[in-house]
């Protein structure tokens, strides 16, 4: 057997493809890791539940994404090598598998970034509403988080060809339900925010004024969209703005 005959052997070509796939997959993984690190992704995902879970098993979000890109190349190389070596007479099956792998890879990436975005959205909303002293507000960040996750889940399923029309209908019902339940549960929250807009625009009292709202009296320390904070004898009262209209408001003049 001469060299030309040996090179033309399917098994040899398959082995060469497999070896090339391993090298290319490794290089792609390293390149993706460097690019993600340079773009600031580690800082963006720091402290998220997904990152903490990854670190608990000795890896990181960036490392997982980089490995996924490598595994994607490895999988293509293995399937191509099997097809070239003619180990299985299932050409149509392998074609479908090769078409399916990129879809799975993208779906996994969508889920990973969905978790990251959901965590960041929850933190951002929590930070924005941190000064609101209404008990109903604590549920809003969770609603935002799981809404983002649900959308990411839908996109991932659609990417791998799952029929998602019923889930889209469920999403629409969920959105309508959120609006209806929110209107009922957050009625006081909405009233307080509307009252806050009025107070901020008309300013019937300001910081430093001495006022009495219902049974609480003191000097105004802060007025925001949702609450008015007054202080008296080292005690701070946090009063929802709706109370300004429900109870008697008295501005005490010197």
UniProtKB/TrEMBL annotation:
Keywords: Membrane, Transmembrane, Transmembrane helix. It is a multi-pass membrane protein. The keyword Metal-binding does not apply. It holds the Pfam family MS_channel_2nd. The keyword Acyltransferase does not apply. It is found in: Membrane. The chain crosses the membrane at residues 12-29, 71-88, 100-118, 139-157, 163-186. Its main location: membrane. This is Mechanosensitive ion channel protein MscS. Belongs to the MscS (TC 1.A.23) family. GO terms for cellular component: membrane. Residues 194-247 form the Mechanosensitive ion channel MscS domain. InterPro entries: LSM_dom_sf, MSC_TM_helix, MscS_archaea/bacteria_type, MscS_beta-dom_sf, MscS_channel_2nd, MscS_channel_TM-2. It comes from the Archaea. One of its GO terms (molecular function) is mechanosensitive monoatomic ion channel activity.
